[in-house]
């Protein structure tokens, strides 16, 4: 119906209950309603038709199942990863990623639940997959078989296929290579940039080095954070990646997440075990994540950072500007207001001077932004001089906005 969410007719009393010893979740769901996690996958061709029980709670789902079972090669059966004998599962359809799009190379469309008469055994492969929105995704070509595609993917990723380990020292060496001849990106870098959660999950499980950096100093977490993919970021954090690693510009993955624009990923990183260590790290120019959020004019990011301990009064190295100075230079009234209010966190101090001795109101006056001047005018007097001897009134003259000038004159007269 919307993204990965879809309507499904079912009876809540018929849903399976999770045993106490299975409380550790192997599945996750993202904001789009897509489900990612580990499954044991078997081909429908290995199960005789007589074993199927297609009795479900709604005739539309039953019809979808019957259609899927008439096209077995395009579908597979998903079973709980610990199950050795198949008694029930989910029928899904394998789809290929459209050209010029990022994300997993394959994804699955949910069809419906399937029960079996007596437990059966079948070929299987254990892997992490995504079930979700496949609108505009490509169906398999004539002659392609879903399970064969998964087996090939499994071999490439050194997965456990039918209970046999296919570990490859050569593959591990290639994954961990930082040879500039391959553009300094490992398999993990490529998968993280493409938001391919399936491949990232297998690489994490294979215990590859998650902290290898490319020639720009970026680790896989930098790339995933910038792309705003919470599933890949979660896999890397869960796998033990170093979240405070810095690139050649001294930026962490949190800086890149701000530029990427995903509030969910920013929250995810701030709520990790290293969140407090991350929030106020400065890059080579002295900019914190809050400086970056202010520069983007993103008030939601600013709120999130303040609520998680961001210090709004940290000054960058060049220009000695705080996040408030930056927001004013971008004429971002909403961000300025949030910084002054400091919701759930520390308020910005508008009296802090930049490298030129200018307080926030001087910058607003120079910008000629009346709304910002009005926001700041009650905070600081207009007659205080900067390093060059100019007051806010003189900066208002330089700004050239008559309304700001009138405001400055009135405030100056009353101060």
UniProtKB/TrEMBL annotation:
Protein keywords: ANK repeat, Repeat
Domain of life: Eukaryota
PROSITE patterns on file: ANK_REP_REGION, ANK_REPEAT
Stored SUPFAM superfamilies: Ankyrin repeat
Ranges: ANK repeats: 216-248, 285-317
UniProt keyword Repeat present: yes
Full protein name: Ankyrin repeat domain protein
Organism the protein comes from: Talaromyces pinophilus
């Amino acid at each position: 119906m919307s993204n990965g969410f879809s309507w499904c007719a079912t009876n809540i009393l018929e849903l399976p209950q999770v045993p106490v010893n299975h409380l550790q979740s192997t599945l996750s769901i993202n904001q789009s309603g897509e489900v990612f996690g580990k499954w044991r996958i078997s081909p429908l061709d290995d199960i005789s038709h007589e074993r199927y029980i297609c009795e479900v709670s709604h005739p539309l789902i039953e019809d979808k199942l019957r259609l899927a079972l008439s096209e077995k090669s395009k579908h597979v059966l998903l079973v709980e990863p610990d199950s050795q004998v198949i008694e029930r599962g989910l029928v899904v359809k394998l789809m290929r990623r459209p050209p010029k799009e990022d994300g997993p190379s394959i994804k699955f469309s949910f069809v419906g639940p399937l029960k079996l008469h007596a437990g059966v055994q079948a070929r299987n492969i254990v892997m992490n997959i995504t079930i979700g929105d496949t609108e505009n995704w490509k169906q398999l070509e004539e002659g392609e078989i879903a399970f064969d595609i998964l087996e090939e993917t499994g071999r490439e990723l050194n997965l456990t296929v039918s209970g046999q380990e296919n570990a490859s020292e050569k593959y591990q060496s290639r994954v961990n290579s930082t040879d500039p001849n391959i553009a300094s990106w490992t398999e993990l870098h490529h998968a993280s940039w493409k938001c391919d959660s399936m491949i990232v999950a297998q690489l994490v499980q294979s215990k590859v080095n998650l902290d290898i950096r490319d020639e720009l100093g970026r680790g896989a977490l930098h790339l995933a954070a910038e792309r705003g993919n919470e599933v890949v970021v979660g896999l890397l954090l869960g796998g033990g990646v170093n979240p405070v690693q810095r690139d050649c510009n001294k930026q962490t993955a949190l800086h890149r997440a701000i530029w990427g624009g995903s509030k969910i990923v920013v929250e995810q990183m701030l709520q990790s075990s290293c969140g407090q260590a991350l929030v106020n790290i400065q890059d080579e120019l002295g900019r914190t994540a809050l400086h970056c959020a202010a520069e983007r004019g993103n008030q939601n990011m600013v709120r999130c950072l303040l609520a998680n301990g961001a210090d709004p009064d940290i000054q960058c190295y060049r220009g000695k500007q705080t996040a408030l100075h930056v927001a004013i230079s971008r004429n971002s009234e909403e961000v300025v207001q949030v910084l002054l209010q400091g919701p759930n966190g520390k308020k910005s101090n508008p009296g802090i001077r930049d490298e030129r001795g200018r307080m926030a109101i001087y910058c607003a006056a120079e910008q000629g932004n009346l709304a910002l001047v009005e926001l700041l005018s009650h905070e600081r007097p207009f007659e205080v001089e900067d390093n060059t001897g100019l007051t806010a009134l003189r900066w208002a003259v330089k700004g050239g906005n008559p309304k700001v000038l009138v405001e400055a004159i009135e405030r100056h007269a009353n101060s």
